[in-house]
Amino acid sequence: MNFLLKKEKKLIKKFFYLESLEEKYFFLIKIGKLLPLLNKKYLIDKYLINNCQSKIWLKLNHKNNKLIIKAYTEALIPRGLLFLITRIFSNSHTKDVLNYNYYLFIKKIGLNFFLSPLRSNGLLIILNQIKFYVLKNLI
CA-based, 20 to 30 A from 133: which of 50, 90, 118, 125? Predict the structure, then answer.
């Protein structure tokens, strides 16, 4: 099992014990507080994700065939989602990122059942942008 799938498995296990929507939202808010701050020099339009309800900045980079993600938003739920994304993808091998089926992860932790359509759309925009970055820069 690759490193990315190991990280996914740990996160799925944490969500497994959350029964109510309230618990899941609270958990997203809680883990969002763990998202490292993004240097202010990256809080510019160049790194701003378009078509998201919240202002979200995403700085993608790579080193030694590993993806490095830094992200920021002030919105509470999206910050938790960004924490999940950075936890899974950051420091993962780029080939694993390309082969990763994030739709299954979304389904396994139940995000598709409790996120609003706008948040789900924003999440998919971010995930697609990550894959596009890897395709464009590393292949």
Answer: 118
Task: For residue 68, give both structure tokens.
Answer: 């490095």
Q: What does the pLDDT read at residue 45?
A: 95
Task: Render 36-95 in DSSP notation, one character per residue.
Answer: PPPPGGG-SGGGBPTT-SS--EEEEEEETTEEEEEEE-S-HHHHHHHHHHHHHHTT-BHH
For residues 102, 107, 70 and 118, what is the CA-based torsion angle, rounded to 10 degrees?
A: 110
Question: What pTM was estimated for this model as a whole?
Answer: 0.92
Residue-wise pLDDT tens digits, 5-36: 899 999 989 888 888 889 999 999 999 999 99
Which H helix or E strand runs over 134? helix 117-138
Look at residue 139 and tell me whether its pLDDT is greater than 80: no
Exposed e or buried b per residue across 55-75, where buried means at least 16 C-beta atoms within 10 angstroms of its C-beta: ebbbbbeeeeebbebbbbbeb
